[in-house]
Amino acid sequence: MLTKKEVEKIAGLARLELAEKEKEKFAEDLSSVIGYVQKLSEVNVEKVEPMAGGTNLKSVVRKDDETKCISDPEMRKQILSAAPDREGDYFKVPSILE
Amino acid sequence: MNLKELTIKKAHELLKKREASSVELVEAHFDEIKKRDGDICAFLSLAEKEATEAAKKVDGRIAKGEPIELLAGIPAAIKDNILIRGAKATAASKILENYIAPYDATVIKKLKEEEAVFLGKTNMDEFAMGSSTENSAFGPTKNPIDLERVPGGSSGGSAAAVKAGFCVYALGSDTGGSIRQPAGFCGVVGFKPTYGAVSRHGLMAMASSLDQIGPIAKNVDDAAAVFEAIRGADALDSTSVDMEWQDYWNEPVDIEEIKIGVPREYFIHGLNPEIEKNIKFAIRALEKEGAKIVEISLPYSEWALATYYIIMPAEVSANLARFDGIKYGHSAIDKEEKLQNLLKVYNKSRGESFGAEARRRIMLGTYILSAGYYDAYYSRAQKVRRLIKQDFDRAFKEVDAIITPTSPTTAFKFGEKMQDPLSMYLADIYTVSINLAGIPAISIPVKEVNNLPVGLQLIGNNFDDIKLLKIAKVVEILNKQNL
To answer: How many structural domains are present in chain A?
Structure first.
């Protein structure tokens, strides 16, 4: 069973502010799922290669050419205007240092 | 015009013979939506003006005697996690409540090339996380068959819209059953293509190694028609695959040449015995037609759901990290306050606008991937995923397709599983292994139980999508004969 403190730690890593009264319910829910997925410890996975993706995956590369930039001015405008705060064509970010 | 029975083929005929115009089709569907969607809530937003404009264009071409594509002028609904340029795309989340898509998803671009008409965006579980649409931030969709029951999820709005006759077909997305399970609950056809068959560019990523876009339709032919329009390699999705596809329309499958596997692990406790009876009835019907039926074993099935609930949340926690309150979406940034702290903006923006299930899965994934737990959970799950895939590889050496139920129950009532997330997760027990293996599967309605739809899941081998659809068509025909 996860403690309230562990839930706070996970929420911090996940950058999620939780209300005080939610923490116990989340501890209960997460514990029940984690308890369930521990079922996998029954499986012998010795010498099994991990499977990372869907099907027939091979690495795809493309040239780093500037035409792949957002050349459509209308789209560019829409993307920038979706930002909550900006200065010119830059996203504005609050201070990192206190 | 009976909209509930209106298929792509029929609508296309109406247009070609000029018995109805595309504008008339669009109007008829909006009339129906306005009359009944107040109760069903299949749509999150409608695009009447844009749809009418697109329809007029097609009508103009028909008037000039020009040939039109199969999907031209035919009204469709699109799940709200797929981007249509200029239209709201919320993924049923508060964090994207006011987000306008700046570009078209590749599937939308392809449908636009066919001159398809989009009526609106459909409701879903927030970011496609759930099996009932109860996780939508904007309220649940109701099952058109019985308004007290869920339509399934996460593509519940798309499935309900197709069933209710609000659109001719719809697009959904499927990460662990999100096309097939709601199709099963609503009594329509839902097809998840092979991983890589359809580009996901412009689909909001949930779990990238599992996500796939596919059609929800009124019959197998329509599902095939939509699949043919949206599939294909795309430079903007590096997992999409370039290949030669067979032609669905050339000749039907010779059922006497087909061998179908029935995995014993899927017919166990927890499966509603009435559903089992109806699935077995459909299997017997295939056997009478000459198909060879063999019992098979997929021994690692028992661990599929646990594997899924490690891999999926791990990928969710990474994919949903992009919602940070800085670039787009809901933000706690206060422009006036000069000394606001970045970390607080992250925590507050995310904490106050992700719903409970999204936060649950983000935290689960964060825990699973955190130092000290990675090997025990994530790495082990990737290995079991390989074993699950090998089960299917072995089976498909012997059989052409596999039959299982789509879900262990029929559509459940609202609230029944909301308090206990694990009980909700069990609704996906028969569908998740298909996404883990990357293979295609389709849910086809068979005989109902207590007037509620039952879905039969037909599973195919990688990139055997067309063969799978052809076999599905036989299941569909036999089911109609036996009603």
So the answer is: 1
Query: Does any domain span residue A27?
Result: yes
- Vertex A33 angle, CA A30 and A39, to 5°: 140
Domain assignment present for A87? no
Q: Is B88 part of the contact surface with chain A (CB cutoff 8 Å)?
A: no
Q: Identify the helix (H) or strand (E) that includes residue B54.
A: helix B48-63
In a domain, A11, yes or no: yes
Considering only the beta carbons, identify the residue of A33, A50, A94 that sits closest to B421.
Answer: A33
Query: B108 to chain A, minimum CA–CA distance in Å?
Result: 16
pLDDT band per the 50, 70, 90 thresholds, residue A57: low
Side-chain-side CA neighbours of residue B353 (13 Å):
25
pTM confidence score: 0.97
Say whether the ipTM exceeds 0.90: yes
CATH number assigned to the domain comprising residue B8? 3.90.1300.10
Residue A53 has pLDDT above 80, yes or no: no
Of B351, B379, B389, the CB nearest to A18: B351
Q: What share of chain A is helix, strand, coil (3-state, %, to 5)?
A: 45, 5, 50
B194 touching chain A per CB within 8 A: yes
Task: State how many domains chain B has.
Answer: 1
> How far apart (Å, rounded) are the C-alpha atoms in residues B115 and B109?
10
Does the pLDDT of residue A56 top 90, yes or no? no
Per the structure, the complete domain to which residue B297 belongs is given by: 1-483
Residues of chain B with pLDDT under 70: 338-339, 483
Whether A21 is in a domain gets the answer yes
Instruction: Look up the domain containing A38 and give its range.
Output: 4-42
Q: How far is B15 from chain A (nearest CA, A)?
A: 34
The strand pair at B401-405 and B452-459 is best described as antiparallel
Catalytic residue flag (residue B154) = yes
Which of A85, A33, A42 is CA-nearest to residue B338? A85
Q: Rounded CA gap, B172 and A29, in Å?
A: 28
- Cα A14 to Cα B354: distance, rounded to the nearest angstrom: 12
Catalytic residue among B21, B79, B173, B192: B79
Q: Which residue has the higher pLDDT, B420 or A34?
A: A34
A34, A40, A77: best to mutate for the B interface, most B CBs within 10 A:
A40
The confidence score (pLDDT) of residue B317 equals 98
Contact B157, B172 (CB under 8 A): no
